[in-house]
Amino acid sequence: MVFILGVNFPERNLVKKALQSFFGIGNDTSARLLARYHIHPTCKVGELANKQVLDLTAALSDMKIENDLRRKVLDDIKRLRETGTTRGRRHALGLPVRGQRTRTQIKTAIKLNRVDRRL
Amino acid sequence: MAWSSSNCVVHAMQSIRSPTVLRALLPQQSAARPNILRKVSLLPTPLQQRTNVRNYATELQPGEVQAAAEIDFEQFKARPARIVPVSPSYFSGIPKFYDHLLQIERLLAQHTTLPTVPPSEAPRRAWMKIAQFREHLGEEVPTKKYMGLLKVVYRLNCIDPKLLPAEVDAALQEFVRPGNPLGEKPKPRELDGMGRARGKGKRKESHAVVYLVEGEGEVLVNGKTLNEVFPRVHDRESATWALRCSARLDKYNVFARVKGGGTTGQAEAITLALARALMIHEPGLKPILRKAGVITVDPRRVERKKPGHMKARKMPTWVKR
Amino acid sequence: MVSPFCWGCLTRLRPTPRTLLPSPSSVSRGPAFHTSAVFHAGLRPGSGRGATAVSKFRQPSNASMKKRKKPVEKSRPPPVGERKAIRKRIVLSNPNALEVEGLQELSEETMVDSRLHGTALALPVPMLDQLRAVQAFKPNQGWSIFRRPCTILRQETLQLGRFFDKVSGDGEHKGPFVKKKIISGPSKSGKSVLLLQAMAMGFIKKWVVFTIPEAQELVSATSSYAPLSEEQPHLYVQNEATAALLSRTVVANKAVLSKLRVSQDHPALSAVTPGMTLEGLANLGVQDPASAWTVFQALWGELTATAAAPGLEKNFTPRPPILVTVDGLGHWMTESKYRDAEFKLVHSHDLVLVRHFLRLLKPGGDQPALPNGGALLYATSTTMNPPSVYAFDLILKRAAARAAGFKFNDPRFPRAEAYSNIDPRVLEALTSQKSKHAQEKKLGHQVLGGVTHDEARGFMEYFARSGLLQETISDEWVSEKWTLAGGGVIGELERIGRRLRVAA
């Protein structure tokens, strides 16, 4: 078991997938992180050297991920709502924000779009 | 017009054929003619009895040949005594056809004793198709009748070509398709200047051209070796089957160009092309190749999809409503 | 009064209640003119459901016809690494195959004997472990159908054998000759087996054998990498791969390396003691992958040394020739799958291990590539895998043209097309220059095609003698199979031989 940013990962997991388990890190970001610390893409968590683990943790702690990112997204939505923009209104109404049609296919917007959006 | 009615014609014929009846109806005739008629009636010989029954106005009475009276062209009416169609089958509806049929049947009867050859050795001629024949005659000949005619034609064609009379030949020429596509045999194919034989073949959507030269058994398909082109061994075998079944696999080099279709089609297109090229090198192999089935063209193609069908034949599932 | 309907019309219309129908006995049971199932169903005396319960159109008539879901068997997946082990497993013996009588082994005499051309030669049993260690056998080769591993002595093998004989023989032509050769050919044409034969000869002649059995594994980003040093951040070292190479080399060349002693100074390695065997030196790298690259460099320096460093003369013995084989050279001619810190792809030539082996191949260096003689055999496939690289293809074409006798000024000499996006590094790495060393030849190129008819015959006879073929082997039969195998491609011949076995 290896701790990366306070999270415990089993040794047989891929480092790339382990990084992607953080909110705010996807395919591209994790690949770039691996490249920055010269970790090959098929590397397992157990194969990481201590220094590499520390490097990754330091890099992750500098990034805006997990709760910071969630808070930021919610703040942005709230700001839109408070300034009275159309986008804010659409969020509040639970409708698509970016000009999609609303006659059909707005299930996702109904489910997700609201001021205190669930992330 | 009165002639158009058949009844009128019959009446006219009758009136011409029985001058005795006519005589009663025409009392004031010229002097010479009633005399003759009267004499005939006065001499009731058995022969004359008969002629009396079937007497034609144009027939001469035997024994009483006389110069006919001078025709007075002033009085001559431009109307024939009776109208005779050119063809005896004029009233059959398809007279030209029957004329032909009668003619060749007569020829057959005339020459039926001439020696014949088996149909396979008879000279090949491309006979007219029914549609062509109809167009040629301008008559709606029924198919069955034309087939009957063709049977006679086939029989006449089987007469030994050396003894074939000129008139029969001319009559048969009537039924040969214009241009006579089968008449001239294609020139036998030959090797080109570099000793290559070229054969073409098709199967499914594939077209193949094969150049065959004498060699050690190397095969190139589109510039690649056989195993690169056909991953399946079966395809390789079928592509070279013509050489294999004639035990010539190590005597020739094959260069094939093939395009279109999939692997099976390409392999079997090469088979056909290769067999044809091999026959140019060695025409004597034809029976072997025919038996091996490599020079038989497989004309099957994918059946087209039809509207309303899922595939060529498959229909969507029937739903009640 | 007579009803306007007859019974037949009424009964055929719809299932009628049974009471309306005449009793079964009253209906004449003569020939059934009505084929209506409904009618008969109603008439059948034993019918329990009667005529009222008629199933609807196109629906399962009873509930038992409904599909029941089969319980999915839940079994544990195989343990970690087992699938890979099965995939990579190499079986070298088939006890069901017949023992071939009079089979000769590959040895110093037989490998140059042209009378044996086209026959199968067995690999000596003690050598199999060495060959396994250098991963000379590939899982997709047909070793598992014969009693013991054998190879066909083909023309190219004989040439190689003569070269090995020339380098380490006792004749007057003995000398540190170096053969640099790229072996290319279509897939299954026997390139890897030729490399295997070279390795076997190397082991027989007591050479040191370095192999890269899968060149692709070095560039496919499946093992760890790191920048070489602070000063050279654009070069990358692959410690695990280097350690694996060292371990292969140590296990396979134990007999040779354990007799050689360290005779140079290695300031970078503190663990090296004077008088240590080279085996011990290499094991340092195996044990500590972090220092593997340094150890490899030290080992290479020891093996290519022609004289001892001052003060260490008593440890020096003449170094044996070196054989280097690389399988799949084409994979090294593009960018690798590794990424640098800026997320750009690392060129394969920036990986030090690759760079080391490619630099050996390049003729015309200041230092001779192998001062003690030896051979560099790099194989690459010309079909599909690896994907073709224009610059590399051009180099191969040029090598072929040079072999055909075209000079560089000749208009028929292959040139790069204008506007072709050619990789200058590949071109630069392999462009052949005039060699500065007398015993080093230019970069050679050998195209490995199909075997000849005689060799094919020998191969099929070996099949027959192993009991895998029932046919009598005639010239015609062999030439037919030769054609079907795409002109004697030996892998295809083997496949056909196997196929016949299944059919029989």
TrEMBL record, chain A:
PROSITE patterns: RIBOSOMAL_S13_1, RIBOSOMAL_S13_2
Gene3D superfamilies for the chain: 1.10.8.50, 30s ribosomal protein s13, domain 2 (4.10.910.10)
Organism classification: Eukaryota, Fungi, Dikarya, Ascomycota, Pezizomycotina
Entry keyword set: Ribonucleoprotein, Ribosomal protein
Protein family according to the UniProt entry: Belongs to the universal ribosomal protein uS13 family.
Annotated protein name in UniProt: Ribosomal protein S13
Organism: Aspergillus pseudoustus
Cited SUPFAM superfamilies: S13-like H2TH domain (SSF46946)
Recorded superkingdom: Eukaryota
From TrEMBL, chain B:
Pfam family, any one: Ribosomal_S9
Comp. bias (Basic and acidic residues): 184-195
Residue span of region Disordered: 179-199
This protein's GO CC annotations: ribosome
Record key words, sorted: Ribonucleoprotein, Ribosomal protein
InterPro entries for the chain: Ribosomal_Su5_D2-typ_SF, Ribosomal_uS9, Ribosomal_uS9_bac/plastid, Ribosomal_uS9_CS, Ribsml_uS5_D2-typ_fold_subgr
Signal peptide extent: none
PROSITE patterns named among the record's database cross-references: RIBOSOMAL_S9
Family: Belongs to the universal ribosomal protein uS9 family.
This protein's name: Small ribosomal subunit protein uS9m
Natural source organism: Aspergillus pseudoustus
Automatic annotation (TrEMBL), chain C:
Keywords of this entry: Mitochondrion, Ribonucleoprotein, Ribosomal protein, Transit peptide
Broad class of where this protein is predominantly found: mitochondrion
Subcellular location field: Mitochondrion
Top-level lineage group: Eukaryota
Region (Disordered): 44-82
Compositionally skewed regions (Basic and acidic residues) per UniProt: 72-82
Family per similarity comment: Belongs to the mitochondrion-specific ribosomal protein mS29 family.
Name under which the protein is recorded: Small ribosomal subunit protein mS29
